[in-house]
Structures are given as C-alpha cells and as structure tokens.
Design brief:
0% helix, seven-stranded mixed beta sheet
C-alpha cells in the first residue's frame, strides 16, 4: 500500500510563490502518473497539473505559465512550484498518484491535502 505525504502549504500574498511537495512511501511495483488537484470551498476537486513517469506534463488552463510540476523518480516525490499566486488559487491541494501494486494491478492514492491561502 502507498501513502502520500504533502508539505508546503500556507498563507501567501497575491503575487507570491509557494512550493508544494509530496512524497510517496510504502510498497509498490511502480509509480505512474502523479499530480496535484485542488478543491475550493463549495467546489469540486479539480486537476491542477499532472506528470507522467517519463516527465510529460499537463496543466489546467488557469495555471499555465504560473505553476510548474516536477518529479524525482529516484526519491518518489512530486513537487508543484506555484508563482504569481492569485486569491482564486486558494484551496486545499491534494497530491495524487497512480501506481501498480504488482505488474497487472493499477491503483490510485490521494494525500491528505494541504491548505493554500492567497490573500489579496
């Protein structure tokens, strides 16, 4: 079973930057696509960015040019660098990982979430 532990959330002023990190631990055969999602109060959880094990990235239109996702396959970590933050980026940010517990079984796991608050 895989666990994800996030860190790096907090309070920042508009225009500022934050970096979120997520580390995967536990027993698994391989890690696949990892990503970040966010959920604002009263809203559904939405994709922010994903990155495949090969490094291919995908971003929500709202964060393109401001956020950058990266991963370290050797350390089983994924990070999200958030620049030029806006009040509308305020949300709980969740790390997500797809993994295989064996060569044929695909599973998904979520982190506990970390709060990002952007003040105007």
């Amino acid at each position: 079973q895989v666990q994800l532990v996030e860190s790096g959330g907090g309070l920042v002023q508009a225009g500022g930057s934050l970096r979120l990190s997520c580390a995967a631990s536990g027993r698994f055969f391989s890690l696949g696509t990892m990503g970040w999602y966010h959920q604002a109060p009263g809203s559904q959880r939405e994709l922010v960015a994903t990155i495949t094990s090969g490094g291919t990235t995908n971003y929500a239109d709202s964060v393109k040019g401001r956020f950058s996702i990266s991963r370290d396959n050797a350390k089983n970590t994924v990070s999200l660098q958030m620049n030029s933050l806006k009040p509308e980026d305020t949300a709980v940010y969740y790390c997500n990982a797809n993994y295989r517990s064996n060569p044929v079984r695909n599973l998904e796991v979520w982190g506990q979430g970390t709060l990002v608050t952007v003040s105007s």
